[in-house]
Amino acid sequence: MPEGKANPKGFYPEIIEVGIVSVKNQQIEEQFSSYVKPNKFPLLTERCKTFLQISQNKIDQGMTFSELLAVLNDYNNGSSTTVITWGNMDMKVLRHNCQMSGEEFPFTGKFRDLSMEYKKFFGDRNQTGLWKAVEEYGKKATGKHHRALDDALTTYNLFKLVEEDKRYLQKPSPTTIGDRIDLSKVLNKYAT
Known about the structure:
It holds the Pfam family RNase_T. This is 3'-5' exonuclease KapD. It comes from Metabacillus endolithicus. InterPro entries: 3-5_Exoribonuclease, ERI-1_3'hExo-like, Ribonucl_H, RNaseH-like_sf, RNaseH_sf. The structure is a single chain. This protein is α+β, with helices and mostly antiparallel strands. It has a single domain (17-190), classed as Nucleotidyltransferase, domain 5 (2-Layer Sandwich). The protein has nine helices and four strands; from the N terminus they run ββαααβαβααααα. The protein is elongated and about 85 Å long. The N and C termini lie far apart (85 Å).
């Protein structure tokens, strides 16, 4: 987050925190959280520190971007991974950071932007913020807003709620005569 309106020369957003919730068969298998040291702009602006309530010291103690990519590659592990985010910025920033570092993008699976699914499902005109969407369900978000792991947990909880609503509203297949009448009884009655 640059200070003021003017971006420093060559500025681009860099990842400074990661939060992952790994889910398999609707069960959380693992959680991961770390700060990440920026490569190009290692010093956080006052605006960034204030907005995220984060200290320079925490960032300085974080993992490198290369270490982050190794972690993400482990989560991708060649299986049919689906990455679910709230909004598309996380993946855009990750792709751009990979390009700027000359690194391969770590994911090969599918991507789902839950905020767009939410928008379409509820017919909203604008995208809804993650924490507002949770409140619209009458629930509370997990932890602190703009903390990577807390946002990842909140996204997963919202994902479960949206998927449950989708299943509930799915049009069931129409019943057949066989569903309404036990034909074996009818046939036995008229069998000779």
